[in-house]
Specification:
Blueprint (H helix, E strand, L loop, with lengths): L8 E4 L3 H4 L10 E7 L2 H4 L2 H11 L3 E8 L5 H11 L6 E6 L1 H15 L20 E5 L11 E5 L5 E5 L7 E4 L9 H20 L5 H23 L4 H21 L3 H13 L3 H6 L2 H8 L4 H11 L2 H7 L6 E2 L2 H12 L13 H9 L2 E2 L1
Parallel strand pairs: 1-8, 2-3, 2-4, 4-5, 5-8, 9-10
Antiparallel strand pairs: 6-7
Length: 362
């Protein structure tokens, strides 16, 4: 038995905002635009949105203080500032951090009595303000998922999911991704890779998610090296935007697995970008699944060969200082993470400790 829900309507093209600006009128007279401080200005997405909203006669307010790995406190500050106004819908523009923040803010502005901690109790709310998602990276896939990942008050990343935060509309323009640096191209591309592979091997995988996962993996294998070699290769950028969207559609059905769990503390405590941190453990997920679903693992090998070697060829190498206390805390937290229930293979305290230790330096 399996089921499928992906209610987001996707528009994918160059000049996608300009071409489809009429859709904003469907959501009301005033929009909250949630974004980061600089990237949406550099890639032109924010000006495109502002021009589209103005031409449609829609009022808007830009909240542009979202940072990488958004925290509970940052969401509280955003809601505190924005709740003095009345918004009909929320537009998230940027990478995963602004999109995930937009989802959280959309819930809290619709449900004014909720605290940010209440986002993790799906019984406490049933709706959010309508969300329009405009990604400017090709990795997170958040434009087509019901998930948001925030950093809690103790410094650990925590994801929540709710059908109400599926974006109503996703507007995807690969041109917005051309300005990404090489390091950001690699990290976001590896994030999409992890979504596709983890979803393909997840215990929650379905026949439909598998179709998307395989196509996403093929596109990434072919086009991530091209985008890294030539950032202005719009054909490769377009393929990576498509691959990222497909991979997002995969995890909307399958969730993520061990690699994400192990990567989270590397991002929040060591400053390593999310995609890089997650990809550092992807080979372990593939190896762990081999005894249970050898045919699927073989398919991954057919596409990439040695997945660890492919990741390293993208330029990823992580070495970090890790105290014994940090190691023990991270291992214990991983063992109790909900992602473990969807991860194939046997991962105990010893094996997880070894995965962290292999990147540890004195």
């Amino acid at each position: 038995m399996w089921q499928y829900l992906m209610p987001t309507k996707i528009f994918f093209s160059q000049r996608v905002v300009e071409k489809n600006k009429e859709i904003f009128k469907n959501f009301g007279a005033k929009a909250l635009v949630v974004t980061g401080r600089t990237s949406s200005r550099i890639n032109g997405s924010l000006s495109d949105i502002e021009n589209a909203l103005k031409s449609m006669g829609i009022e808007f307010y830009v909240y542009d203080r979202i940072e990488e790995n958004p925290t509970f406190e940052q969401i509280r500050q955003a809601v505190e500032e924005c709740k003095t106004q009345s918004f009909d819908f929320v537009i998230g523009v940027g990478g995963g951090s602004p999109l995930d923040s937009a989802k959280a803010i959309a819930v809290l502005l619709r449900n004014r009595s909720l605290r940010v901690e209440d986002l993790y109790d799906s019984n406490k709310y049933s709706s959010a303000l309508p969300i329009v998602a405009i990604p400017t990276t090709s990795g997170t896939g958040s434009e087509v998922t019901q998930y948001s990942v925030l950093t809690d008050d103790t410094g650990f990343k925590r994801g929540f999911g709710h059908d109400s935060i599926f974006p109503v509309i996703a507007l995807i323009d690969p041109v917005y991704t051309v300005s990404m640096t090489v390091s950001l191209t690699r990290s976001t591309g590896l994030d999409a890779l992890c979504h596709a592979v983890e979803g393909f091997l997840s215990k929650k995988a379905t026949p439909i998610s598998d179709l998307y996962a395989v196509e996403s993996m093929k596109l990434i294998k072919e086009n991530l090296p091209k985008a890294l070699e030539n950032p202005n290769d719009l054909e490769a950028r377009t393929a990576m935007s498509f691959a990222s969207c497909l991979a997002g559609m995969v995890i909307s059905q399958t969730s993520t697995t061990l690699a994400h769990v192990l990567g989270y503390p590397l991002s929040t405590f060591k400053g390593i970008r999310h995609g890089d941190a997650t990809a550092a453990f992807l080979d372990a997920v593939v190896h762990g699944a081999e005894s249970e679903i050898p045919q699927k693992v073989q398919k991954v090998k057919e596409i990439f060969g040695d997945i660890k070697r492919f990741i390293e060829s993208a330029g990823l190498k992580i070495e970090l200082q890790l105290s014994d206390e940090e190691l023990e805390t991270w291992v214990k937290r991983a063992l109790t993470a909900k992602h473990m229930q969807w991860t194939r293979g046997v991962f105990d305290e010893l094996s997880i400790r070894k995965l962290y230790e292999r990147m540890r330096i004195d």
